[in-house]
Design goal:
Elements: H1 3-6, H2 10-16, E1 22-29, H3 50-63, E2 70-73, H4 101-112, E3 119-120, H5 135-144, H6 148-168, H7 174-181, H8 192-196, H9 207-229, E4 235-241, H10 245-254, E5 258-261, H11 264-273
Parallel strand pairs: 1-4, 1-5, 2-3, 2-4
Helix pairs in contact: 3-4, 3-11, 5-6, 7-11, 9-10
């Protein structure tokens, strides 16, 4: 040990040591319960069947090897701890009735690794707060300016991917389908749709740019909640709608003290277990 270090107390040396990085793995998913809240929705079959439960167990087994110290889900809960109260009553029986991915993936994995709590970090506009996805303004602009065909074209790739999902669903496992939803090169996992909306505007009225700004804001607030409760050395699994994946991974990869863990190898291992 160098003389300048040898003369310091253990506490002083600890203060000089950078904190352990916080690892964040984003698992983007489609909505299992068919809530119909997205602009482009897919019909999802019943995930409580024995076949789908077997697939979800394989998924949980693979993702659990990440050894998450926290699991965070797309549920809005108040700070400062954002704990989801529903998780305290979770049992395997819930998986036979509740189709939502929060339970089927988030709670399942949290329980498997023995976590006492799950955090809900979603962000939704309250009274007097702005719309985080003002697509109605984009649609109104396109209609007034005769640009509806351009707007239709912007959504065409996502709609085609949704129909492909529905066609392949009967013969595909859940982990295999999630590969597409976590691949940034695909319409369901990437950012192309949002950026294609930037063209809708004329310099004075810029609804496409406004939509992108508000979508960024929502995801920044979501990640800020993660930051509120994360501690050095944490390994955080975030189970969220795949449309949020691009920005949540961006924040995990670029926020000082954080690193983004690729979920794809875990999904591939789950697929291999089911062959």
């Amino acid at each position: 040990m160098l003389p300048i270090i040898a003369g310091l107390s253990a506490a002083a040396v600890a203060l000089m040591t950078p904190p352990a990085p916080i690892q964040v793995m984003i698992l983007g998913t489609y909505h299992f319960g068919n809530p119909g809240r997205d602009k482009v929705n897919v019909h999802v079959d019943d995930v409580t069947t024995a076949k789908r439960q077997h697939e979800l167990e394989a998924l949980a087994e693979s993702v659990a090897t990440f050894r998450p110290t926290r699991v965070m889900v797309e549920v809005q809960r108040p700070g400062p701890n954002y704990d989801v109260t529903d998780y305290s009553t979770f049992s395997p029986a819930v998986l036979r009735a509740d189709r939502d991915e929060t339970s089927q993936i988030g709670y399942r994995i949290a329980a498997r690794v023995g976590l006492p709590t799950v955090q809900g970090i979603d962000e939704q506009p309250g009274t007097g707060e702005p719309d985080y996805f003002p697509i109605d303004r984009v649609e109104a602009y396109a209609k007034v300016h005769g640009e509806q065909p351009l707007l239709d074209a912007a959504f065409a790739a996502v709609q085609a991917s949704a129909r492909q999902f529905e066609a392949e669903q009967p013969s595909s496992s859940i982990p295999h389908m999630l590969l597409r939803y976590n691949d940034p090169a695909t319409p369901m996992g990437g950012q192309d749709l949002y950026y294609s909306l930037l063209r809708f505007g004329d310099g004075n009225d810029q609804p496409g740019a406004d939509l992108n700004a508000m979508w960024y804001l929502r995801n920044a607030k979501i990640f800020a909640k993660l930051v509120n409760v994360a501690r050095p050395g944490d390994r955080i699994l975030v189970v969220y709608g795949a449309g949020h994946g691009y920005w949540l991974r961006h924040f995990a990869a670029t926020t000082p003290g954080y690193s983004s863990v690729d979920v794809m190898p875990y999904l591939r291992r789950a697929v291999s277990r089911l062959r």
